[in-house]
Amino acid sequence: MLRSILIALDGSPSSLQTADRGLELARRHQAHVEGLGIVNSAWIQRPEAVSIGGMAYKIALDLKELQSAAQRVDAVLRDFRERAEQAGIPSFQIRQSDGNPLEVLEVEAASHDLVVLGRHSMFDVDGELYELPLCVDRIIRGEPRPILLLPDDGLGKGEISSQTQVLVAFDGSPASSRAVHMFALLGLAAGRVIHVVTLDQSSPSRADETAARACALLRRHGAAETHAIGLGSSEAGTPAETILGLAKALNIGMIVMGAYGHRGIQEIFGSCTREVLNACPTALFLHH
Questions:
Q1: Could you give the number of structural domains in the chain?
Q2: CA dihedral of 139, 9, 157, 199, whole degrees rounded to 10
Q3: Domain ranges, residue 25
């Protein structure tokens, strides 16, 4: 079951919107929650070429920016405390940490079941990867615990209530298997309507059987309804197109999938994960 959630906060609008939905998830599961305010001192103080005599000026600017970032995160954590108290969270804490977000989360997430992250948070690391901050992509690639990545819209597709319909992308690969099992073991399948899609280019009937096995697992973990969707190559586009198309057609509020697996050419070249990350308007539960 879901016992502890880590919510990453950097003061960005994306992380602020994420906080409310992470707190609602914690309230529903009676889980402990930690609001982790991250001051990215490694990025602010990164080495840069400066003109002769300009180092002292750069240091002064860095210190001013560090102070500004720390004050912003401090305000965010005070606001988070108020929100947690108003939401009636039984157990929560707040903490501020300085450093590279990837390294900070790697350490702090070790005592939590789930990391909740805003899709457009952590922007000030190394630029962007298409529409996605590069730091967020690196966190997803490197974090061994499951991540719930939430979009920025305050309503609708960003909600993760018990009425939210879920789409599970499952092909039997190790990454997708770990994702669906962790989703179920954390209790997130309970009471939900879940659609499982499997693509098998060689055999649509085998795709149906693979999806049905995942459905059986999810029903044992309390899913209210499950629907198996097995597709062959003639019935669908690329894996990413299929996932995104079904999410839109079925009014899906959350997608569950393995992140950056290595089955087949699509993940090695072109990356289904990256395509979904860049285009998906819904919550994403990711594990690898």
A1: 2
A2: 10
A3: 4-150
What is the pTM for the complete model shown? 0.83
Q: Are residues 163 and 132 in the same domain?
A: no
Q: Are 117 and 248 in the same domain?
A: no
Contact 137, 276 (CB under 8 A): no
Q: In tens digits, what is the pLDDT along the chain, a chain of 288 residues?
A: 899 999 998 877 788 888 888 999 999 999 999 999 887 654 444 444 434 444 433 343 444 455 566 777 788 888 889 889 988 898 999 988 887 888 888 899 999 999 999 888 865 544 444 467 777 888 888 888 999 999 876 444 445 666 789 999 998 888 899 999 999 999 999 999 999 999 887 787 889 999 999 999 999 999 999 999 998 766 667 888 899 999 999 999 999 999 876 554 344 334 788 888 888 889 999 998
Query: CA-CA distance, 199 to 65, in Å (whole number)?
Result: 49
